[in-house]
Each structure stands twice: as C-alpha cells, then as structure tokens.
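Supplementary Text 2. Reproducibility record for the structural model of the 212-residue chain.

All settings were left at their defaults, and a single model was retained for analysis rather than an ensemble. We include the record here because the model underlies the residue-level annotations in Supplementary Table 4.
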Amino acid sequence: MQWTLVIPLKPLALAKSRLADTATDGLRPGLALAFAEDTVAAALASPAVRDVAVVTDDTRAGRVLAALGARIVADEPRGGLNAALAHGAAAVRAFRPDAPLAALNADLPALRPSELARVLDAAEEFPRSFLPDAAGTGTTLLAVAADRELLPAFGTDSRARHRASGAVELRPEGVVSVRQDVDTGEDLRAALSLGVGPRTAAAAARLLIPGQ
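Retained model, structure tokens:
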C-alpha cells in the first residue's frame, strides 16, 4: 500500500514563534522552510509514500516544495491547522478517491524514510490511527483508510483528543524520527542529535545553540 500525505504549512513569517529563544525573527522563516523541505524530501523518499500534498498559502514555500515534487494546495479556508488539513484531504480525494491518507507535521527535520514506512505499515491495520509526538501530548501523524474521513484534531493535547475521537494509537518501535517534531529550542537540539536533513543542518549552523 502506498499513501498520500497531506502536510500543512502556515505562512513562513508566522511559523515557529516558540523558537524565539533560539532563532531571531529574521532566521525563523528560513528555519521553518528548511524543516518543511527536509520533511517533504524524506517523505517522498519513503517506499510507503506515493505522493505528498502541501497545504500552504506561502508563495516562497510553495515554489520550493513544488520543486521537490510536492503537490501544492492553496489554504483556501485559512481557518487554522485542522481546517487546512481537512481541505487538503478533500483536495486529494478529488483526484485520488481510493487513496489512504495521512496527515504529517511539516516540522520533522530528522525524518527517516524507512521509519515513516514502518509507521504507515502499522497504520494499514486500522481504519484510523495516529502517532504521538516525542513530548507525549501531541500528534505527528494521523492516518485513515481510503473509506474514512481524516477528522483532524491537531493542536493542544491532540494525543488525548485523537484517542478520544476513536483513532488507534500506533506504537511501532524504532520510529523516533517520525515523532520528533520541532517547536522549541529543546526540540531542535533533540532533532539535531538524531541527525537532521541537509537544509535544516545548514539553517541551524547559523544559530547559536547551547550544547551543539
């Protein structure tokens, strides 16, 4: 089974505000784009992934990610993360109605294609399932079979909310790179310790990060 991934990305100027202690206002947009580039590149390299749709209204990000092979879907609802994901899923289903779908965070710069495949293989067993983030309260991936609606509930305490909605929590071993999203400086240090993609590595080299 090959999956279509839906990846949401807010305008770069608004992205990653919680990294203010690590990156200046001038550096955060480039860092957010680097995260997304490495995430999309790793996802497209996974044997379990057929294609990737990125939902964004950011012109620069759309151009760069399209060059990597992503399909760009305009964020027409402009109603936040979950509205963007629902819109992206509907857009994908319009041209691939039989596609199993997975929503994936755009801030997984250490993502390994083989680990993503392991998670998606585990998701095949369930109509709707999710993977919690490294912090244990959020979600990095939400997957649904072709005949199910995505029904995203990302945001604060999304692990609990996805579980309460009936999604099965996935527990595959050895998939830390799929769980390590980056919201804070501590998250970035954790991702760097795992080994990030080349674009994030180059962007992070411009930062002063204690312990690196």
